[in-house]
What does this fold into?
Amino acid sequence: MGDFKILFWTLVIEIIVYIVSLFIDKDFVLSFLKYWYIFVIVLFVVFIIDMVRIILDPIKTALWRSKWYKFRLSLDEDNIFLEKKYIVNDINGRINLARKEFDHTRQALPRLVKVDWIEDEKKNATTYDLNDGEFVVKLHKSKCQEENIIDMTYAVSKRTTLNGVRHIVAKNKDYEDAIDSIMVEKIIANLKNHHVLDFYFQNYLSLKTSSVSFSDYYKKLKEIDHRGMFTRIFILELFDFANRIRGKSFDNILLGQIEYFANFLYNVNPANTSTHNADLSYNKAYIRTGVLLFSEEKMLSQGPSIYVDAVSNFFINTDVYSFYILHYIKEGFQNWGKMSKGIQFVKSEIVKFPTIQLYEETEFNILDDFGINHRISCSRYIVHKFENKQMT
Amino acid sequence: MIKNDEEKFLGVLDQDTATFFQGIGKTDELKLGELKCEACNIVLTYENFGAAYKDKGKYVFSCDKKECLSQFYVRKQ
It folds into this structure.
């Protein structure tokens, strides 16, 4: 019997080697089989490195824990302990991973969420008292996990964005709701889960779109987000606005500055530079900014110097706090080489101004109305009030 | 451990709301209909409870309606 087994496995290995050798050199296969343990060691090392990376990243740890508990829950559906573990790890892992996907301008964006069960926090005490500032939310069982995720996304977004301006924006409830809806949608979209998105559109957004005012604000902010300007410009400028008005109580003028800022950005479209007649500067008391767009026709006929002069005339001399350079990256298109050189010249010249400092530069993709993918560059510059920009 | 860039929430499973109110000593008030939603003033029950917050020693509550929770989430000290 033992001889039969040896004969059987020898035959199996010979068949495998024969089949593989049809595609790969037989000597290589045989030497590979001779040193198979090296292959196993390499796989093991890669596995250990991956495990360490997951353990050191709390978001990935939470995600893997949620998958583990979900698997165990599938075998023991009535186990409340497993269900609770799955719910919180899934919320913490998925929302935070989605939030991390747009980590630029991180100060202005919602914080990461950390949900713990109250009985764990209060060490399973039968009676306890909440500390001041502790926020308790009701969560549903795991079959309503989409609702839990959306509710917690709303909670963390509402509590940690628009800090310093929320008391002003809240006076226009539809405007506030529209801003919060866009922020929540951005996080939920990064979950890449159609069930959650469908649930959100059917059970949350649809409740608000009956208001004409909300729909109008929502449409404008959605278009601003579609062009990549919602977090990179709108939220960031509101964050700086909050710092400038710190301590001020509500004033209709302050609300007006925020409301009209959305209108300003809505009219800025880097896709239409040839026919662009919209105002590219927004100069109010506490939001003073502008956007520089490049027209291919002007760049090629008049050269990049006109844009350097425009920065001086329209941004520096008018005391803006910041300005942005937005342009499409059209590699492979006709004249892109000359455009690119012109744009790089402008960017290198403007940082030579003593009061201008590059804050951040990002590139991102958008889909236009025809579903065509475009790559866009957005650079933010701070204009300091003092000649020595190293002071700040 | 809460990091600076994290916002902490305490969760209560929907089937554990009775235990929660018992824990904070508000069961009697809830049964008497004395606890109300801060936004819409509806009388709170175990079923329609949405969120709770402690502000300067006083408990405030919200029902589970989305519009009420939306206003409640921005509550801060």
About this structure: Chain A touches chain B through 49 residues (CB under 8 Å). The mean pLDDT of chain A is 86. The first helix of chain A runs from residue 2 to 21.
